[in-house]
Structure formats: structure tokens, C-alpha cells
């Protein structure tokens, strides 16, 4: 029952938050620039062209009417047209979304699959050489600039050793389009050559994205496990002669993972944001690459579209994290 | 003052945090004494086509860039940009966020609720994305990077101060000062703020590292200071067309960013262990 209230409460806050996000992008695009129309029209537009565009876009209306129309437009998925591809921005964004999601899902998977066990081991063998090594490893992961790390990986693995492709998502045509996720599509069509290509193209971008994410997961899992190991129930279980393996991997981990799950949710949002630079370095045709192209073209409608979509993904992820908290931690819903 | 001495003594004991202090000191010294230490101080703006893209040697310690400028000298001057952006942007975020958090935490009512909802909305967008949107709209310059970063980072302090204020507002010393007739302003500034200052200090130190990374990312994307500014992120982005031959071009600025961010993170972790015993890096209660 309490769980239901929690879920409903989170859903209730979803809509005001999204509207708030719209108000932020409206403020950035309509209020901060001295003259948004001149901004949109570009440097070479004449005064008549600017005035015509102003009327056409409805920017001669009072501010509250502009805001209202903006909200209606965004709700219907209308972000305007891109200066870079000349297509509707919503089409551009939705065709690029699978590439970014594929990259971020894979990075979350890799960082959690490596980070959680390493965090547990680091806690169990506290102050061992392995723990010290992992600490240096994780502290470095949080301090490294991902665009620089990406370039280093390219230099070493693609240019120098030639083990991985330098950039792009696939050197072939890509598998037949079903979901837009190359790995899933090539599995569905049983195209092993494409599967190999898309996985090998993913190695370096995923390494770049997963390293700082993994560092965070290791730190939080380690802290969570150390905390849980000090609980009375662990003392009790030890006294009852439970095998240490069972205590740690079954009972301690479940408690320790509560903090980690929150972090994985936050990490997912951060990965989508970091994808901007990583996609730019690896020419990965996703949302981030599109955002960087839009920056170069000063295409600010497209940038606002990207900001909005990235924000909505982040809000949805946090919603899922909050709700899954309720399921993992029964105390939350009591 | 006694508190300060306590922190310094603890920091000296914690070797890792001390390393952080040393790295930050190195950044500050590099920024202040850039003209003294740099081997070619005029290289920030000048270019020498015949020295273009030289490997590191005894003359050009970190090699030269596409303009033939000495990368080592440019890194030193770049430290000034890094430190300016970080200090001003974080300072502004603290100045905006802390009062908002204090007021929202101290008073109960629709206004507090609204302030916190607004900061939640800002936190609902990834910081780098919001900073990109603002910096792009304002145009590339150091001032605009600072503006974009302050506009995106203040909610962290508002959230933190709000939570801390709520957690101590029923303490006896707060209630006592209210009962003695202290004005709300006096209670907030003289009694609440000093008691939550340690969490603010820890958050600010760690925030510096994150802000420097975000600022470098904006520079890398071409949204920072325009050329020929020796901004570290911009230098790395310039190097890309000369890879893999000019391997040294991206190396030095990348290491500089890494060491500085590492410095703030290590000091932040150390300060948290000292100032906030509730969330220690490692739990010491051995059985």
C-alpha cells in the first residue's frame, strides 16, 4: 500500500518537473539572447528577413503567449527544424536515440558487472594491496577527462596497435533496421559479421564511458558493504556459523546494493551527458554527436531539443531508481 | 582558529589528502608565477611557424603545438584560466545556493517548497548538458563559461544546505537562540551556518574538481575561451587533427587536467573523513 503511494507520488512529480525543464529551455532560448530572432536568422539576414521571421515564429507576441505556445509545441514533440540536417529536430533526435542508448546501456552493464564484484572484494579485503590498487584506480577514473581518455585509447588501441576500429558504429552498412540497436538487430537477423563489427566498434567508446562509471560503483559498493558488515545481523550470522561467502554475497550485498542502485541510476544520466564528448571523439552517430554538430552550426533549436530530450531521459531514469528503491528496500515502503 | 589548526594537523597525517594539497598548491603557484616559470612566456599568443609540432626536447619540454608555441609555457598560463573559472563559478554557486538553502530550510511553507522544487528541476538535467545549452546561447568566452557553470551548479549547495538546516533546526541551541529573541537572520547566519559549514566546505572542495572537468569539456567543445587562449580543453581539441604523429600535443594538457582534478578530489575525500565522521571513506569499527 505504502509502495503504491510512493509510486504515485513519484509519478505525480514527473509532470511538473518536465514542465519546469521546458521553462528552463524556454528561458535559455527566448529570454537570455538579446534578440532570439536575429540569433536564429544568422549573421547574414537583413532587417526585413528578421522581422518576417519574427512574425512567422510568433516571437512578436507577449512573453506569456510565447511560453504557452512553446509548451504546446514541445508537448507535441515539435522542436522546429535543424539548420544542420534541414529536417524536423524531433525526427533527427529519435533516429539517433538508439545509438546513444545502445552505448549507454552497454556501458552501464559493463561498469556494474565489473564494479559491483570489485567493490565487494575491495571491502572484504580491506587495506590489502588489491584494495589500495583499486583505490588508486577508482580515484583516477573520477579525475580523468573522458574526451582525453578517449583520445588516448584511440592513439593506443586503434592507431598504434590496430586492434580496434578508430571510430564509427560499424564499417559495413549496419544490420537491417528493426530496433535501431545494432547488437539486437544483428542478433535478430542472425548476421554474425555485423554483430562482430558493431561489438568491436563499441569497445573503445564503452571503455571510455564505463571507466568513471565503474569507479563510482566500486566506491559506493565498497562503502555499502563495509557499512553492512558492521551490522548486528552479520554478527549474528557469523555466530550461527553461516559460511562467510553466503553472508557476504547473499545478505550483505543486498543491503549494500541500495546505495549502488541509486548510483547506477545517476550514472546512467551522467553517461548520457558524457556521451556528448565521447560520441564526438569516436564519430558515434548518436544524440551527442548530433549535439556537437549543432554547436558547430550554432543551431540552437537543435541544442535545446537535445537538452530537453537528455533531461527527460534523466528524469525518467531517476523515477525508475526511486521506484526500484521501494522494491529493493522494503523499509522505504513501510 | 583552533578548528583550522585541527584540520591542518589531521591533513598532514593523511598522506593521500596531503598529496591533494600539494597538487592544488602546484596549480596555484603555476598560475601566479606563470611568467617566471615559463620558458617562453610570449608563446601564449605568438606563433613561430618554423618550430611547428616539435617533439619534446631540452628546449621545448612538452613539445610545441600547431602554431609553434611552447606547450609547457601555455600549460602554465592555462592554469590561470582553470583557476579563475573554478574559483569564480564555484564562488557564485555557493553565494546563490547557500542562502537559498538556508531560507528554504529555516522557514516552512509554500515558498520553501517552491525554492526546492526549482532546484530539483535544475538537478534533473545533467549539468554538462545545461552548461552546453547556456554557453552556446551566450557565445564562447570565459565569462560565459563561468555564467553557465554557476547557473548549473548552485542547486547542489541549495540542496545540501537545505537538508543540513532541516536536520539541525530542532537542536537545543537553535531553539534557545530563538527563545532569546534572536532574529531569523541572526539565527541562520550566527547559529545554523557555522554548524553546517563543514559539509559546505567538503562539497565545495569536491565540486571544484567536477567544475574543472566540466569547464575543460566546454573548452574541448569549442564553447570556452576563443583561440589562441591556452585553455587546456581547447588545446586537447586542437591536437586531434595532428594525431597520431604529434602524440605529445594532447598529453601534457590532459595530464594537467587530471592532476588538478585529482588534487581537489583527494583533498575533498580527506576533508570529509576529518570533518564529517558520519560518512567515512573507510569504516574502522573492527570486530
What do you see in this structure?
The complex is a heterodimer of chains A (334) and B (287). Chain A contains 13 helices and no strands. Chain A has helices at residues 2-31, 36-41, 47-57, 63-75, 89-124, 129-143, 146-160, 182-188, 192-229, 232-239, 244-282, 287-296, 300-328. In chain A, helix 5 (89-124) packs across helix 9, helix 6 (129-143) packs across helix 9 (192-229) and helix 7 packs across helix 9. The longest helix of chain A is centred in the last third of the chain and has 39 residues, at 244-282. Chain B has 287 residues and is an all-alpha fold. Chain B has a domain at 83-265: MetI-like fold (Orthogonal Bundle). Chain B is built from 11 helices and no strands. The longest helix of chain B has 37 residues, at 184-220. Chain B is elongated. The chains are: A mainly alpha (334), B mainly alpha (287). Chains A and B meet through helix 1, helix 6, helix 7, helix 9 and helix 11 of A and helix 5, helix 6, helix 9, helix 10 and helix 11 of B.
Order of helices and strands of chain A: HHHHHHHHHHHHH
CATH topology of the largest domain in chain A: MetI-like fold
Quick one: CATH superfamily of the largest domain in chain A? MetI-like
Unreliable residue runs of chain A: none
Please work out how many helical segments of chain A DSSP would assign: 13
- CATH level-1 class of the domain at 83-265 in chain B: Mainly Alpha
Write the layout of secondary structure elements.
The complex is a heterodimer of chains A (334) and B (287).
Chain A: H1 2-31, H2 36-41, H3 47-57, H4 63-75, H5 89-124, H6 129-143, H7 146-160, H8 182-188, H9 192-229, H10 232-239, H11 244-282, H12 287-296, H13 300-328
Chain B: H1 2-13, H2 15-32, H3 34-37, H4 71-106, H5 110-123, H6 127-138, H7 142-168, H8 172-179, H9 184-220, H10 232-239, H11 247-275
Helix pairs in contact in B: 2-4, 2-11, 4-5, 4-7, 4-9, 5-7, 6-7, 7-9, 8-9, 9-10, 9-11, 10-11
Amino acid at each position: 500500500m505504502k509502495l503504491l503511494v510512493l509510486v504515485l507520488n513519484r509519478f505525480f512529480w514527473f509532470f511538473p518537473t518536465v514542465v519546469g525543464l521546458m521553462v528552463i529551455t524556454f528561458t535559455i532560448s527566448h529570454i537570455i539572447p538579446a534578440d532570439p530572432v536575429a540569433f536564429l536568422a544568422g549573421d547574414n539576414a537583413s532587417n526585413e528577413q528578421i522581422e518576417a521571421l519574427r512574425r512567422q515564429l510568433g516571437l512578436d507576441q507577449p512573453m506569456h503567449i510565447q511560453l504557452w505556445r512553446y509548451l504546446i509545441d514541445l508537448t507535441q514533440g515539435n522542436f522546429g527544424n535543424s539548420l544542420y540536417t534541414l529536417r524536423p529536430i524531433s525526427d533527427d533526435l529519435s533516429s539517433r536515440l538508439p545509438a546513444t542508448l545502445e552505448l549507454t546501456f552497454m556501458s552501464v552493464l559493463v561498469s556494474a558487472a565489473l564494479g559491483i564484484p570489485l567493490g565487494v572484494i575491495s571491502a572484504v579485503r580491506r587495506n590489502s594491496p588489491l584494495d589500495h590498487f583499486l583505490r588508486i584506480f577508482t580515484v583516477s577514473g573520477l579525475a580523468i577527462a573522458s574526451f582525453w581518455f578517449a583520445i588516448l585509447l584511440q592513439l593506443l588501441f586503434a592507431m598504434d596497435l590496430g586492434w580496434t576500429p578508430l571510430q564509427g558504429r560499424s564499417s559495413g552498412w549496419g544490420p537491417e533496421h528493426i530496433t535501431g540497436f545494432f547488437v539486437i538487430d544483428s542478433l535478430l537477423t542472425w548476421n554474425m559479421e555485423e554483430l562482430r563489427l558493431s561489438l568491436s566498434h563499441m569497445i573503445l567508446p564503452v571503455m571510455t564511458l564505463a571507466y568513471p562509471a565503474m569507479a563510482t560503483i566500486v566506491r559506493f559498493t565498497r562503502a555499502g558493504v563495509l557499512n553492512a558488515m558492521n551490522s548486528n545481523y552479520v554478527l549474528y550470522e557469523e555466530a550461527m556459523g553461516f559460511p562467510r561467502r553466503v553472508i557476504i554475497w547473499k545478505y550483505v550485498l543486498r543491503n549494500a546494493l541500495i546505495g549502488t542502485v541509486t548510483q547506477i541510476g545517476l550514472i546512467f544520466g551522467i553517461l548520457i551527458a558524457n556521451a556528448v564528448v565521447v560520441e564526438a571523439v569516436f564519430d558515434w552517430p548518436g544524440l551527442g554527436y548530433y549535439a556537437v554538430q549543432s554547436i558547430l552550426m550554432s543551431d540552437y533549436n537543435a541544442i535545446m531539443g537535445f537538452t530537453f530530450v537528455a533531461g527527460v531521459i534523466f528524469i525518467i531514469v531517476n523515477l525508475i531508481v526511486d521506484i526500484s528503491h521501494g522494491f529493493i528496500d522494503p523499509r522505504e515502503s513501510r | 582558529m583552533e578548528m583550522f589548526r585541527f584540520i591542518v594537523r589531521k591533513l598532514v597525517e593523511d598522506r593521500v589528502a596531503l598529496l591533494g594539497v600539494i597538487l592544488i598548491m602546484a596549480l596555484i603557484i603555476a598560475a601566479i608565477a606563470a611568467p617566471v616559470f615559463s620558458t617562453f612566456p610570449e608563446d601564449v599568443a605568438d606563433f613561430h611557424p618554423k618550430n611547428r609540432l616539435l617533439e619534446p626536447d631540452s628546449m621545448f619540454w612538452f613539445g610545441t603545438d600547431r602554431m609553434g608555441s611552447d606547450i609547457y609555457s601555455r600549460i602554465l598560463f592555462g592554469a590561470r584560466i582553470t583557476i579563475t573559472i573554478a574559483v569564480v563559478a564555484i564562488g557564485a554557486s555557493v553565494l546563490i545556493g547557500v542562502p537559498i538553502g538556508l531560507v528554504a530550510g529555516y522557514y516552512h511553507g509554500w515558498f520553501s517548497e517552491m525554492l526546492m522544487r526549482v532546484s530539483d528541476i535544475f538537478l534533473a538535467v545533467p549539468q554538462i548538458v545545461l552548461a552546453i545549452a547556456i554557453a552556446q546561447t551566450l557565445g564562447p568566452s570565459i565569462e560565459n563559461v563561468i555564467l553557465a557553470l554557476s547557473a548549473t551548479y548552485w542547486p547542489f549547495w541549495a540542496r545540501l544546505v537545505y537538508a543540513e538546516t532541516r536536520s539541525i533546526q530542532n537542536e537545543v541551541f537553535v531553539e534557545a537562540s530563538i527563545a532569546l529573541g534572536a532574529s531569523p537572520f541572526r539565527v541562520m547566519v550566527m547559529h545554523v551556518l557555522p554548524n553546517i559549514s563543514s559539509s559546505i566546505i567538503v562539497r565545495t572542495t569536491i565540486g571544484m574538481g567536477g567544475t574543472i572537468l566540466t569547464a575543460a569539456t566546454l573548452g574541448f567543445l569549442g564553447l570556452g575561451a576563443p583561440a589562441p587562449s591556452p585553455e587546456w580543453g581547447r588545446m586537447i581539441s586542437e591536437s586531434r587533427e595532428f594525431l597520431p604523429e604529434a602524440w605529445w600535443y594532447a598529453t601534457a594538457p590532459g595530464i594537467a587536467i587530471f592532476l588538478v582534478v585529482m588534487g581537489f578530489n583527494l583533498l575533498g575525500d580527506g576533508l570529509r573523513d576529518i570533518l564529517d565522521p558520519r560518512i567515512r571513506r573507510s569504516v574502522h569499527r573492527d570486530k
